[in-house]
Design brief:
Elements lengths: L1 E5 L8 E5 L9 E11 L1 H7 L16 E9 L11 E4 L30 E5 L3 E3 L6 H4 L2 H14 L8 E5 L3 H12 L3 E6 L2 H9 L4 E4 L6 H9 L3 E6 L6 H7 E9 L13 H6 L3 E4 L5 H14 L5 E6 L3 H10 L5 E5 L2
Parallel strand pairs: 8-9, 8-11, 9-10, 11-12, 12-13, 14-15
Antiparallel strand pairs: 1-2, 3-4, 3-6, 3-15, 4-5, 5-7
Length: about 325
């Protein structure tokens, strides 16, 4: 089989296409013939050396993949050869609360990922692909989709009539918009690009704000709602946290996910967060159970992920470069087979 390996520090150009034997599944394992994978910002950081000395080499990158069960090992129940499946981000986190043990083995980080023609998965870490999704669409769910699901539904419990603010047009933000709308919420979405703003409106955003034209977008969101939003899906990190605090209502929640916006403001508005009894909720993907819940919800509502562009397996490096450019809206995917 062919797979890509990050063989050492050196960035995207250090990705090497190599040949390896197709592995055989052992007890409780399934050999999956992967047909699609997708790139997350975390994968881009990994390839660019953002995790420093902790980085595993060599590494098959990417956490997200979908395909077809090729063969099963002894003791496997619930997954049969020929079934379309999706692999979970954390193979050891089946359900329940997170722990160090459950979160230790993240695909494309601590263990080899999905930029490969075949991969062995524990049977318990696989979820059946919803019938209305193609494998490319299914391969976008495990990281960005589950992260958005955890932020909007599992951890923050958004209900009909509440208001969610999303930032930008990356994978997590677009999923959060779609999930919030499925939950019956009103969505305020931000972007700096007018063409992307039009796409956000087409996807169901009730209000859109251009954060370059309105750098005080947090204040504007509070004015629009009259009291502030119930939830901000914060993908910018400390660089956008001040405006997120301004946008959030008394008693509201900021789901803290990303680090896209770089350096913090000179002075964070943490006293305002305290006075308004806001909650800062860290979110790191979720469990196999969460992936199943997301798949069930998408199937019920017949909602499809937004895939911006699909690259062939032979052009995986170009896919990373495109992701790095920030030109995408939604997900960047790779067709493996």
């Amino acid at each position: 089989m062919k797979c890509y390996e990050l063989q050492g520090p050196g960035g995207i150009e250090a990705l090497a296409l190599v040949d390896k034997p197709v592995p055989a599944p052992g007890q409780g394992e399934v050999l999956v013939r992967l047909s699609a994978a997708s790139i997350n910002y975390r994968d881009l950081l990994t390839v660019k050396g953002g995790y420093g000395a902790r980085q595993k080499f060599p590494l098959v990158p990417l956490s997200d993949g979908a395909g077809v069960g090729e063969a099963v090992g002894d003791g496997v129940v619930g997954v049969a050869p020929g079934e379309r499946v999706i692999g979970s981000f954390f193979e050891s986190w089946s359900a329940g609360e997170p722990s160090e043990a459950k979160m230790r083995a993240a695909l494309g980080g601590a263990v080899d990922g999905t930029l490969s023609e075949y991969r062995i998965f524990p049977a318990h870490a696989l979820v059946r692909t919803p019938a209305h999704l193609g494998d490319i669409e299914a391969a976008t769910l495990p990281c960005a989709g589950v992260t958005a699901w955890s932020a909007v539904v599992k951890l923050c419990g958004i209900r009909p009539g509440q208001t969610v603010l999303t930032q930008g047009t990356g994978g997590v933000s677009i999923f959060a918009l779609q999930i919030a709308k499925m939950a019956g919420a009103r969505v305020i979405a931000t972007s700096s690009n007018e063409a992307k703003i039009a796409r956000l409106q087409a996807l169901g955003a009730d209000v859109t704000l251009n954060y370059k034209a309105s750098p005080d977008w947090g204040k504007k969101a509070r004015e629009i709602t009259g009291q502030g939003v119930d939830l901000v899906v914060e993908v910018g990190g400390v660089g956008t946290l001040n405006e997120s605090i301004r946008a959030t209502r008394i008693g509201g929640t900021i789901a803290f996910i990303g680090v896209l916006a770089g350096a913090p403001a000179a002075e964070l508005r943490l006293p305002l967060m305290v006075m308004q009894q806001q909650r800062l909720q860290g979110v790191t993907v979720g469990s196999v159970e969460d992936l199943q819940a997301l798949a069930n919800a998408l199937a019920l509502h017949q909602v499809k992920p937004v895939v911006d562009r699909v690259f062939p397996f032979s052009e995986a490096r170009a896919a990373f470069h495109y992701m790095s450019s920030g030109a995408h809206l939604g997900k960047v995917a790779i067709a493996i087979g």
